[in-house]
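Bumping my old thread because nobody answered last time. Still need a sequence for this structure:
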């Protein structure tokens, strides 16, 4: 294989045929990549992905991998070095601060606020009209919630959301780097302001928690940036992908219309069927290891693909079928092991409340354009729609 299969234009529109072909050939295989010319190992099988997610020989410390290697990238330090790009003990310190923000009790407290945000957004929707599910619900809902959680002023939220979207652009590294600096610089200003004028707002609370947890100023900014970016980008795609999957499977949509109480139980299958995280963030081998019968030498990038693993027939028979009765709890859309997404409970709550409101208020909703004409974001890391026009 001489070309990166994850950069083919067809991959962005529908990665699953590519994943199936690669997995059938070998669930762990070496591929060329466009990231600095480094070959990488891609993991597409479900048992192999679970194993790799928990193998301590696969490091997430990107600075360690790229040290001494030539690079033309210019990411802001808050984006380049964060909890997702670290190993214990640094990762443990960050996670100890982040996890309490997303406990079951904390998310339960946020549910009335999430409901109000959904109500406010849908108040402008009128039967007989068209809306863009992405722009009119899937983007503003998680952006509003995570910015409320962090205490980001309302006047800053639209700009931060736009920079976050730019950060996932797989086709323009200069745009990605510039967005990282805009986010990092802006959050540095907010953190410095909160530290200079102590108060009782959410960001003041986060700063105190970071101080008590042993995080310095730069680490506090990096954690705030990660919570902001991860807290809305993937949830946006979760909601958009779920609604599109239901529109393409009207029998499943009809079940939720008839009984909206089935929505919470449908979330795992919707996450499995079209994962908002297609390829997990960067890992590299620090020692020689063997995964799925394949030898991976030390010093190589390793890409774990939850989007592929979730369609592995060895784990989920008939994986290309959306089946709301399936036990899909073993999906890997939130990762696995110590790096499993701490914000999963919040993402599930937002998607549940949004989907329940949609099927209750607009039971006759349909796609306003042919599904084949939809445009997907050009990023291999996440999978999400640029827009999803709906006829109410």
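Sorry it took so long. Here it is:
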């Amino acid at each position: 294989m001489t070309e990166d299969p994850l950069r083919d234009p067809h991959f962005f529109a529908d990665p699953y045929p590519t994943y199936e072909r690669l997995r059938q050939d070998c669930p762990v295989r070496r591929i060329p990549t466009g990231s600095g010319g480094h070959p990488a190992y891609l993991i597409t099988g479900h048992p192999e992905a679970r194993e790799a997610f928990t193998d301590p020989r696969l490091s997430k410390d990107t600075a360690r991998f790229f040290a001494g290697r030539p690079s033309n990238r210019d990411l802001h330090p808050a984006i380049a070095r964060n909890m997702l790009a670290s190993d214990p003990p640094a990762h443990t310190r960050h996670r100890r601060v982040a996890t309490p923000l997303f406990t079951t009790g904390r998310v339960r407290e946020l549910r009335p606020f999430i409901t109000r945000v959904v109500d406010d957004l849908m108040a402008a929707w009128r039967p007989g009209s068209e809306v863009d599910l992405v722009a009119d619900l899937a983007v503003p809902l998680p952006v509003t919630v995570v910015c409320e959680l962090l205490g980001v002023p309302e006047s800053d939220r639209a700009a931060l959301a736009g920079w976050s979207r730019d950060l996932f652009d797989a086709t323009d590294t200069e745009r990605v780097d510039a967005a990282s600096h805009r986010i990092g610089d802006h959050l540095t200003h907010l953190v410095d302001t909160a530290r200079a004028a102590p108060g009782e707002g959410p960001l003041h609370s986060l700063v105190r928690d970071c101080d008590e947890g042993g995080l310095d100023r730069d680490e506090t900014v990096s954690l705030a940036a990660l919570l902001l970016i991860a807290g809305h980008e993937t949830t946006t795609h979760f909601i958009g992908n779920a609604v599109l999957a239901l529109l393409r499977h009207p029998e499943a949509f009809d079940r939720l219309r008839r009984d909206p109480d089935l929505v919470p139980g449908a979330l795992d299958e919707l996450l499995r069927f079209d994962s908002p995280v297609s390829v997990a963030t960067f890992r590299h081998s620090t020692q020689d290891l063997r995964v799925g019968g394949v030898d991976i030498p030390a010093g190589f990038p390793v890409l774990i693909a939850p989007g592929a693993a979730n369609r592995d027939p060895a784990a989920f028979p008939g994986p290309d079928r959306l089946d709301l009765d399936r036990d899909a709890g073993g999906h890997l859309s939130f990762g696995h092991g110590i790096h499993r997404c701490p914000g999963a409970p919040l993402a599930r709550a937002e998607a549940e409340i949004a989907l329940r409101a949609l099927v209750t208020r607009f039971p006759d909703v349909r796609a306003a354009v042919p599904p084949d004409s939809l445009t997907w974001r050009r990023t291999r890391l996440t999978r999400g729609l640029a827009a999803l026009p709906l006829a109410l």
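The longest helix spans residues 217-248. Let me know if any region looks off to you.
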